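Q: For a teaching session next week I want to show students how multiple molecules come together into a single three-dimensional assembly. I've collected the sequence lines for a complex. Could you give me the predicted C-alpha cells for the whole thing so I can convert them for display?
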Amino acid sequence: MNQIIIADSLYLVTLVVLSIPLGIYIDKVMTGQRVFLSVVMRPVENMVYRFMGIREEDEMSPKHYALAVILLSSLGLIFVFALQMLQGGLPFNPENLTAPSWDLAFNTAASFVSNTNWQAYSGESSMSYLTQALALGVWNFLSAATGIAVLFALIRGFVRTKETTIGSFWVDLIRISFYVLIPLSLVFSLVLVSQGVVQTIGPYHEIVALETGITQSIPLGPAASQIAIKQLGTNGGGFFGMNSAFPLENPTALTNFLELLAILLIPASLCVAFGKAVGDNKQGWAIYLVMTILFAGALAAVTVSEATGAPLISGMLDSGNMEGKEIIHGVGTSALWGTATTAASNGSVNAMHDSFTPLAGLILMFLMQSGEVVFGGVGSGLYGMLGFVILTVFIAGLMVGRTPEYLGKKVEPFDMKMVCLIVLVPPVFTLLGTAAAVVMPPASDWLTNTGPHGFSEILYAFSSMGNNNGSAFGGFTANTVFTNVLGGLIMLIVRFVPLVAVIFLAGNLANKKLVAKTEGTLSTSNTLFIGLLIAIVLLIGALSFLPALALGPIADYFTAIT
Amino acid sequence: MENNGLKKNILIDAIRQSFVKLSPRVQLKNPVMFVVFVGAIMTTALYFLSFAQIIDEGAGYTLAIALILWFTVLFANFAEAIAEGHGRAQADSLRRARKDVTAHKLKSPNDLAVYSEVPASRLVKGDIVYVKSGEQIPMDGDVIEGAASVDESAITGESAPVIRESGGDRSAVTGGTTLLSDWLVIRVTAAAGESFLDKMIAMVEGASRKKTPNEVALQILLVALTIIFLVVSATLLPFSYFASKQAGIGNGISVTNVIALLVCLAPTTIGALLSSIGIAGMSRLNQANVLAMSGRAIEAAGDVDVLLLDKTGTITLGNRQASVFIPITGVSEKELADAAQLSSLADETAEGRSIVVLAKERFDLRGRDIKALGASFVPFTAKTRMSGIDFQGQQIRKGAASAVKVFVLANGGNYPEECDVLVKKVANDGGTPLVVARNNQILGVIYLKDIVKNGVKERFEDLRKMGIKTIMITGDNPMTAAAIAAEAGVDDFLAEATPEAKLTLIRDYQAKGHLVAMTGDGTNDAPALAQADVAVAMNTGTQAAKEAGNMVDLDSSPTKLIDIVRIGKQLLMTRGALTTFSVANDVAKYFAIIPVLFFSIYPQLMGLNIMGLTSARSAIFSAIIYNALIIVALIPLALKGVKYREMAAGKLLQRNLLIYGLGGLMAPFVAIKLLDMVLTVLGLS
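A: Of course. Below is the structure for the complete assembly, covering every listed component.
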C-alpha cells in the first residue's frame, strides 16, 4: 500500500510540475504570442493559411465558428467511414483486411470524430494500416484540436467585451495542432519506440511458441505514433484491441508511467492556460484544485476497493483484486490508470474494468457520468467544468443578493439555456441509451454476467459513449447493429450539442459588458466556492444516476457483502 | 381589527383562487408544477382504470398518491394567490379612488369661462382642463396656471396636503387626487388607461408583471432539472423490469411510483414558490411606498453598486446650525455674538434662529424685542444676499462673504485679509461661513455647521461591506463637500453638482462596469435619471423626472434608495436560498425512496435504508407528503423574504449555505422519518 501511495503521489506531483510550463505555453500559442517553436512553425503555419485561402485576422461570429466545426467534423465522419469501407482495395494493408460492416464503420467514424474513441472492433483484426493512420490517427489529432479550439473560443467570450467575434476556428485548429499536439506526440512516440513499442508497416509476425510449438501471429503496425496522440489527446482508442494492456502498446513500467501522465497532461495544463488567458491565475488554479480533489478522492476509493478486494474473493486478500489485471501493472497502477482514463475522457485501459470490484466500478462509471469534467477530454473537460462553474455561480450568486456573474460577465437567460444544454445532454442520452438497450429482446444475450453486474455492463457502455469517454467495461457485446447505430448517434449528439452550445455561449458572453468587481462580488476562487463547485458536480451526477447505479454496482456491492 | 378582516379576506380569496388556477392554461405557465399537474391527472386516471381491472398498484394506494399530488398543485396555487392577494387588495382601494369624473375642458387656457363638460376617460393628451377646489383632478397633467393645495392621500397614503403650482418642480399633478383649495389649469399629459394611477393599479395587481431576466434564467435551470428527473424516473421503468428479469425475482416498479418519484425529485418547492417570491418582492416595494415601473428595476436594485445620494436630507439634516463665533483680531467674541444676535432677531430661518440660540448659550444674551429697540429688519433677498437690521444708526449685516465685502467697501470701510482666511478655514472644515459686519467694519465670521445625521456613517460602512459605494451629491464648494464627506464616511463626493456633472459621473461609473442608482426630483435631473440603472423619482417631482425614472417614491424620501437596494437584494437572495433548499432536499428524498423502491428485486439494497423507513409505501407517502407540506411551510418565507444582513459576499454566502444548504439536506431526513413513524402508527404503511 505504501508503494502505491508513493507511486500515486509521484504521479500527481509530476503532473502538476509539467502542467505549469505547458499551460503557460499553450496560452501563449493560442493568444498568438511568440514561442520557441515559432521559428520553425510560423512559416509552416503561414503556408497552410495561404494554401487554405484563409486570413489569420478574419475572425468568426459564433454562428460561423460553429458551422466551421460542424463542416470539418462532417467531412471527417464521411472520410473515416469511406476509408474503412474501401480499405480492402487500398494499399498499406498487408493482412488483406476487408471492410467492416457498415454499422461498425459508422460507429467507429462517429466515435473518432467525437473524440470518444469507443471501439466496437479490434484494431489488429479489423483496420488496415492505412485506415489506422490516415483515418483514425488523423482524427485523433483533429478531434482533440477541435476540443481545445472551442475552449479558447469560450475563453475569448469571457475576456472580450462588446465584441461579436470569438476567433477563427481554422487558426485555432492549426495552432493547437502545429505547436502543441504534433510536437508533443512526435517526442512522445520516439520515447515509446525506444522502449519497444512497435512502429512498422510490415506484415504481422509469425512465431512458433517455444513450449507448445503452436504457431502464433503477432500483430504489428505503425503503433507508436498512434499511441502517443491516443494518450495525449484523451482519445484512448488503442491500436490493438487490448489497448494498453498489450505489451507492444505498453511494454515497460516507464511507458506505463508516461502513458498515464499523457492522459491527464493536457487537460491539466489547460487549467493553467485558462487562468493565464483570463488574466487571473487564481481562477485557473481553483478549477485545477476542484478537478484534483475529485480525482484524488476517486483514486483513493478505487485503490482501496481494489486493494482490499471483496469478501467473496477472500484468500486473495493479500494481493488485492488481481482478476483482469496485468502482473506487471498490479493493483496500484491499474487502479490509477482506471481512474485517470475515466476521469479524463480518455478510455484507454491497461486492465479489465469489468473485473474491478463493484465499488471501484461504480467510481469509474460515476467519473464518466458526472459529465467528464474531472479533467475530462482535452478542451471539452474544461468547458464542461466551466458549465458547472456557471451553474454554481448562478445558484450561489443569487444567495448573495446579486444577479450572478462569472469573471465579470452576468449570467442571463440565454447563457443559462446554453449551460443547461452543456450539462443536461450527456446524462439524458446516457440514460435513454441504456433504457433503449435494456428493452431490446436480446439484451441479456449481449452480457457476460447476469444480475446487477449484467446491468452494470450495459450502463457502463452507454455511460462511456454518452459522455464521449470510450472506455470499455468489457463483458458487453458492443458490435451489434443496434448498439453501433444507437451508440454512434449518441456519441455525435453528446459531443456536438454541448460543443455548439459552448460556442454560442462564448458569442453571447463576448458581446456583454464587464461588470465591475466589488466587495459584493462572489469570489469564484476561494475555498468556499471550490467546495461548493465540488458539491454541485457530485450532486448533479448523483441525482441523475443514483437510481440506475442502485440497480447496477450498488446492488452488486450489497450482493457481494451479504 | 380592520387589518384582521383584510387578512381574512385575502385568505378566503386565495383559497378560491387556488382552485381557479387549476386551469391548464395557468398551469402551463409554470413548467415544474405542470409536471406535478400532469402526474396528478395520470394517477387519478390510473385509479379509475383500476376499476376496469387495469391494475398498476392497489387502487387505494393510487388514490392516496393522486390526492397528495392534487394537494401539492393546490398548495402551489395557494402560494401564488396569497402573494397576489395583498396587491389585489391594494389595487381595489386604488380603483375606488378613480372615479370617472366630469372634467371642465377649456377651449383656451386664457379663458376660464368657456369650457365643455367631458368625462375624464375621454380626455386626450394636450387637452387643457380647469379644476376647482373640492373637485378631483381628472387626469395626470402639468399645472400651467394657478396654485392650489392638493390631497394626494389616495396615492401616497399621506394625508397632509401638498402644494401644486405652475412652473418649477411642483407642477405635476396626478389624476385621482383632490383639490382642497383654489383652482388649477392643467395640461393633460397622459391618455386614459395610461395614467399614473392605471400603471400603479396594474403594477400592484401584477397584471403587467412580466418575468424578469433573472427569474427566466432560474426557470430555465428548473426546467432543465425537471427534464433530467423526468428521464431519470421514466427510465426506471425499463431498468427495473430488466433488473427483475435478470435477478429472476421481484417486479418492475409501478407507474404510480415512478410518478411519485418524479414529483419528489423535481424542484417543486422552488417551482411552486418562484412567482410568489417575485410578487412578494414587488409588494414589499409597494409597502415601502415605492412604485416600480418594471420588475427589472427591482432586480437591478439588487445589483446596484454605486449610490448617488443627495447631501441635504439624506446625509445631513436639512438645516445648518451656527456652532462657533469667530471674531477677527480686535473684536471680542461677545461683541461679535451680540451683533450676530441683533442681526438675526427677526430672521425666521432655521439658521437665523440657531444664531440666536448660540448667542444665548455662549454669553447668555437674551432675545430682545426688535420693535422695542426701534430697529428695522432688513430681510434677505436674492440680490443683496444679506440680512440684518438697521438699529440706532447702525447697519448690522450678515451674509455671504462676497456680499458683505461689497457692503463694507461701499460704506467706505476696508475688508481685512484675515477675514478671507477665516472664511476659507470654515469652508475647509465643512461649514458655511457667514460674515458679520457693522457699518464699515467686519466683526467676524459665524460658523454654520452642516449636521450629519445620526447613524449614517454606520449605514455607509455596512453598504461598503456589501461592495456598495456611496457618493454624495452637493451644490457646496469642493472644500466644504470634502469635509462633510469625510465626516459622513461616504466614499466619494460630487461638489458644485450640475445636472451635466451628474450625468457624466453616472456614465463614467457605468463605463467601468458599475450599476448606478440615484434619486431625483427636478426636471433638470431627468437626463441623469434616464441614464442611471435604478432611478427613483420623487412623487413631489416633475412629470419629466417621473417619466425618466424607473421607480417613483411616493413618500419622496431621500433615504429611500437604501431601502430599495435592500428589497432588491432580498428578492434575489430568497430565490437563491429556496432553490438551494429545494435541490438539497432531493438527497434525503433519494435516501428515503431508492432502497425501498427496488426492495422486491434486490432486498440487499435495504442496507441503504439508513433512515429505517417501514416500507416502500410508507417511504413514498412520507416523501411526497413532505414535498407537499414544505411548500405551505415555506410560504411565509417566500412572502417575507430571507433575512437580510449587510455583510461581504463571502460571509453572506457562507451563512445562507449553512441555513438553506445544510438545512435543506437535514430537514427532510427528520421530517420524512417523523411522517413515516406517524404513518406506521396509524397503520397506513
